[in-house]
Write a structure and sequence with these properties.
Helix 1 packs parallel to helix 2 and helix 1 packs parallel to helix 7. This protein starts with 9 loop residues before the first strand and ends with a helix. Helices cover about 45% and strands about 10% of the residues. A seven-stranded parallel β-sheet has the order 3-2-1-6-4-7-5. With about 250 residues, it is α/β, with parallel strands linked by helices. The chain has two domains: about 170 residues, SPOUT methyltransferase, trefoil knot domain (Alpha/beta knot, 3-Layer(aba) Sandwich); about 70 residues, Orthogonal Bundle (Helicase, Ruva Protein, domain 3). Strand 1, helix 1 and strand 2 form a beta-alpha-beta unit.
């Protein structure tokens, strides 16, 4: 599926957007680069005349915008979720630049939809939101000012997605790729895991430190398949049964 058709499986997600003009500018950038699927998570203001004016001829993208109440809903069904960040994090996370992230995204469209998530204009994505992403994307900038306008950042990423799709690069392991666990499945697993660790007295809920964040990083980096997550949850269920955990 590594062709321009792969772009149909890429979902651009904007979280809590304030300026409707940015929504229109993003729709135009997506249309320029062959992407169609724009999802908004609780935008501060709904698309208005300003947004449609900035969108230019990308009215089809605007008309098909999907609005969600939560990030989980926006990326539901996506086997790969890439979150964008300009900030260094306390716990390092798998980090790609726009080019490598685009190649990775196009590779994986052969088996599942892919979401690329962009945060608020003033502060990007929260740590909690980034924890829901398998990989983090950073666009290198010159000097000490790393903050890009969200529409400009999406333009860069959409361009790289188009180039990756045109080049049709394939991963050596693509033929053996299995469906990855999606975000709801991973979140249910993390809740299940945390519950068991608390009851085993391994995790202190009053002083959790960074334990669950590091475990999230481990499993997000591993990109478990849906069947593997089911197996792990089966193990957790067995532990709960053996320990008499409700």
């Amino acid at each position: 599926m590594n062709s321009l058709k792969a772009l149909d499986s890429i979902r651009i997600v904007m979280v809590n957007t304030t300026d409707t003009g940015n929504i229109g500018a993003v729709a135009r950038a997506m249309k320029n680069m062959g992407l169609q699927s724009l999802h908004l998570v609780e935008p501060k203001n709904l698309p208005d005349e300003k947004a449609f004016r900035r969108a230019g001829h990308a009215l089809d993208v605007m008309d098909n915008i999907v609005i969600h109440k939560t990030l989980e809903d926006a990326v539901a069904g996506c086997g790969l979720v890439i979150g964008t960040s300009a900030r260094e994090r306390k716990i390092p996370w798998p980090l790609l630049d726009a080019r490598d992230a685009a190649i990775k995204a196009i590779e994986e469209t052969s088996t599942h939809p892919v979401a690329v998530v962009f945060g608020r204009e003033d502060r990007g994505l929260t740590n909690e939101e980034l924890h829901k992403c398998h990989l983090h994307l950073n666009i290198p900038t010159h000097g000490g000012y790393s903050s890009l306008n969200v529409a400009a950042a999406i333009q860069v990423v959409c361009y790289e997605l188009l180039i990756a799709a045109q080049q049709g690069q394939k991963a050596a392991w693509e033929e053996d790729m299995q469906a990855k666990a999606d975000l709801p499945a991973m979140e249910n697993f993390y809740q299940h895991l945390e519950q068991v660790l608390v009851h085993l007295d391994y995790l202190n809920p009053d002083e959790p430190k960074q334990t669950m964040s590091r475990l999230r990083r481990l499993f997000n980096r591993a990109r478990p398949e849906a069947i593997e997550i089911n197996m792990l949850r089966g193990i957790l269920k067995s532990i709960k049964s053996q320990k008499g955990i409700e």
